[in-house]
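Project outcomes to date are best conveyed with an example. Our students and postdoctoral researchers have been running inverse folding experiments weekly, and each run begins with a structure described purely in tokens. The record below, which covers 240 residues, was selected by the lab manager from last quarter's runs and is presented without edits.
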């Protein structure tokens, strides 16, 4: 009997540096030698149209680029697909992608909300791009907490930090301090880094507030699905 290898597809390039960071964390989440790590197939295509521009002002539609990458993952035999970009999880993007490339997509924002709600905070600050904020991606998934965002000035700062990180510019420690200040001044009982570029400075965001990194939660969901698959595989009867 041919043994099926569980395959994680990564639809990335949104942006490219965040995709590399996600794959780095994903590999480190599995303990053991090379054989302990699942097959990971990554499409890191930075040419996909800007998601925030599309969501905010009707910029170029990213769908064609996402479909192209999604089809490559389908051909590679992906069992699940991760999209390390919060903005893609907007209904007007992801629902159309799913209709054309019907693979199981892990809902990263839902995973992040689920983790943040474990703190039982009444209010949760979401640090993300203006596009994700406008699309209400986190608002629509929250059940037991009220989603809040920075002031207009604070949101401009977050957007500026995201752009700098995409370009590999700026002082990461300073960015981390600025983000921590937004969290501490918000008065919220929990916070979420809800842009995978912001995940690049996660370790520099020094705050006592419970902080959830959406990228980490995507990694956790991948690992859980991999373990579930292998647990099922162990109890399947062997065909002779």
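After processing, the design step wrote out the following sequence:
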């Amino acid at each position: 009997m041919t043994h099926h290898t569980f395959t994680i597809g990564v639809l990335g390039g949104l942006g490219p540096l965040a995709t590399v960071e996600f794959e780095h964390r994903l590999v480190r989440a599995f303990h053991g030698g090379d054989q302990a790590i699942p097959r990971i197939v990554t499409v890191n295509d930075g040419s996909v149209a800007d998601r925030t521009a599309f969501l905010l002002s009707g910029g170029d539609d990213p769908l064609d680029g996402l479909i192209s990458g999604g089809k490559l993952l389908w051909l590679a035999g992906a069992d699940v697909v991760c999209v390390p970009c919060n903005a893609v999880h907007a209904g007007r993007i992801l629902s159309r992608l799913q209709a054309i490339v019907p693979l199981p997509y892990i809902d990263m924002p839902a995973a992040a909300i689920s983790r943040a709600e474990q703190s039982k905070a009444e209010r949760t600050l979401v640090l993300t791009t203006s596009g994700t904020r406008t699309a209400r991606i986190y608002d629509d998934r929250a059940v037991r907490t009220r989603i809040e965002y920075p002031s207009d000035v604070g949101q401009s700062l977050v957007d500026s930090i995201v752009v700098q990180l995409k370009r590999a510019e700026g002082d990461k420690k300073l960015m981390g301090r600025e983000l921590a200040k937004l969290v501490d001044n918000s008065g919220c009982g929990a916070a979420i880094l809800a842009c995978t570029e912001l995940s690049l400075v996660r370790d520099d965001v020094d705050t006592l507030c419970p902080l959830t990194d959406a990228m980490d939660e995507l990694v956790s969901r991948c690992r859980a699905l991999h373990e579930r698959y292998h647990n099922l595989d162990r109890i399947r009867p062997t065909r002779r």
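Strands lie at 7-12, 39-44, 80-82, 123-127, 146-148, 190-193, 211-213. Residues 43 and 72 are 8 Å apart (CA to CA). The training component of this project remains on track.
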